[in-house]
TrEMBL record:
Reactions catalysed according to its record: Release of any N-terminal amino acid, including proline, that is linked to proline, even from a dipeptide or tripeptide
Family to which the UniProt record says this protein belongs: Belongs to the peptidase M24B family.
Residues covered by the Aminopeptidase P N-terminal domain: 6-142
Protein name: Xaa-Pro aminopeptidase
EC number from the UniProt entry: 3.4.11.9
Gene3D superfamilies: Creatinase/methionine aminopeptidase superfamily, Creatinase/prolidase N-terminal domain
Source species of the chain: Nemorincola caseinilytica
Listed cofactors: Mn(2+)
One Pfam family linked to the record: Peptidase_M24
Entry keyword Acyltransferase: no
Molecular-function annotations in GO: aminopeptidase activity
UniProt keyword annotations, A-Z: Aminopeptidase, Hydrolase, Manganese, Metal-binding, Metalloprotease, Protease
SUPFAM superfamilies: Creatinase/aminopeptidase (SSF55920), Creatinase/prolidase N-terminal domain (SSF53092)
Length: 430
């Protein structure tokens, strides 16, 4: 990992929050996600399991976190299980964590080697009544590969069929959605790096540059600032490409007169930033581009003014949609009769705005969290309305990351150019 050490307090606090939600005399087991094979003998760069990361800060394959807060043996209330380092492995792939290093990162004093895990677990299982097992409960989960999370649970249940099992993910979903001050501090670093990359790009873009050259500028800025890399496949979409929400080819020329939509974010300390900006390739918005841009910005600002603790998430979405409808009327993309004759299941504004306006953000870009309940203090959301106009080969999206606070919210992207005037001022050339 490239990032500088994160204070272990972040993870200690998270474990305390989790333990408070556990039933009496229960044990919770969190195995890390596996490494994923490429074709041939390669593997993809290790992406730590978000739950293991949240509980321990450990980025190493085959790690397991075990919590057993009511264990009569004080030393066994929090245990971190690690792969035992061996010479040959380290000659090939490099250093593996020693016990004292893992303790420094996680704040967990009892670190055990994986080869002793089964024996250790047997003693714990024989005394615990409830076992929290962790499976991926993301609402949009869709995988073809065999699920190692399920395999672990099945094995455990086969060996210990008489225990009461419960869902670790249900608690995780609720807790991980609410970010602590410490987590926001790390997120702010991811955002600061993302802001630097955007500034670099504003000064770099001109007619004739290729989309991949812009991607390279961003990657350069990310890595030299200790980001792990991109939080997700970055989208550099000039002209009509901007209407494709997950366009990642980034292989076209940016042409004079076009708009350029860029959706990218740095991953730093395993936390993510998620920024979208739309800029004019030649540094100056046309009158029409500015009109559509300002309509999108008005919806964005409306979102910021109402997304606060207490609002029901579906009510927020309804209000955004109403504002979008108003703005689209104003710029002539839809008419009053379009609205009058619309199918309520597919309203007129959907032709130009066809995605969700906000998602939870954290250790995962589309982080876990509820989209049906009231918004809570501590949640971190994106606000990202978009207007996509096929007739005008144009797509605009404006996205910031907003942290819910007791008194309202904080825009973590404050200071990053967002109005047409601010963008044009930075792009201005002699
Ligand atoms: Mn987003």
């Amino acid at each position: 990992m490239k990032y500088t050490p994160i204070p272990s307090k972040l993870y200690e606090q998270n474990r305390q929050r989790y333990i408070k939600k556990m039933k009496p005399n229960s044990v919770a087991i969190f195995p890390a996600s596996p490494t994923f094979p490429k074709s041939g003998d390669g593997v993809y760069g290790y992406k730590p399991d978000a739950d293991v990361m949240w509980l321990s800060g450990i980025v190493q394959e085959k790690t397991i976190v075990v919590l057993y807060p009511d264990n009569p043996d004080k030393n066994m209330r929090e245990v971190l299980v690690l792969l035992r380092p061996n010479d040959m492995l380290e000659k090939w792939v490099g250093h593996k964590l020693r016990k004292h290093e893992a303790t420094a990162i996680s704040g967990i004093s009892n670190v055990q080697w994986l080869d002793g895990f089964d024996t250790m677990l047997q003693v714990m299982m024989n005394s615990a009544d409830v076992v929290y097992v962790n499976t991926n409960e993301h609402n949009r989960l869709d995988v073809e590969l065999p699920r190692t999370d399920l395999a672990f649970v099945h094995d455990l249940m086969k060996k210990y069929p008489a225990h009461n099992y419960d869902r670790a993910a249900r608690i995780m979903k609720e807790l991980r959605a609410v970010k602590t001050k410490e987590e926001i501090e790390v997120t702010k670093q991811a955002i600061a790096i993302t802001a630097k990359a955007f500034d670099r790009v504003l000064k770099f873009v001109e007619p004739g540059v290729m989309e991949y050259e812009i991607e390279a500028e961003i990657t350069h800025e990310f890595l030299r600032n200790r980001a792990t890399g991109h939080a997700y496949g970055c989208i550099i979409a000039s002209g009509d490409r901007a209407r494709t929400l997950h366009y990642e080819e980034n292989n076209q020329e940016c042409k004079d007169g076009e708009l350029l939509l860029m959706d990218f974010g740095a991953e730093y300390g395993n936390y993510n930033a998620d920024l979208t900006r739309t800029i004019p390739v030649n540094g100056k918005f046309t009158k029409r581009q500015k009109e559509v841009y300002d309509a999108c910005l008005a919806v964005h600002n409306h979102g910021k003014s109402i997304l606060k603790p207490g609002i029901l998430f579906p009510d927020y979405v309804k209000s955004i949609n109403a504002e979008m409808e108003k703005q689209l009327l104003k710029i002539g993309l839809i008419t009053k009769s379009d609205i009058k004759n619309q199918d309520p299941a597919d309203p007129a504004f959907r032709k130009y705005f066809y995605h969700g306006v906000s998602h939870h953000l954290g250790l995962v870009v589309h982080d876990v969290g509820s989209y049906t309940d009231a918004v809570k203090e501590g949640m971190l959301f994106t606000i990202e309305p978009g207007i996509y106009v096929e007739e005008e080969q144009m797509g605009i999206r404006i996205e910031n990351n907003i942290w819910m606070t007791k008194s309202g919210n904080i825009d973590l992207f404050k200071g990053i150019p967002i109005t047409t005037e601010e963008i044009e001022a930075v792009m201005k050339r002699k």
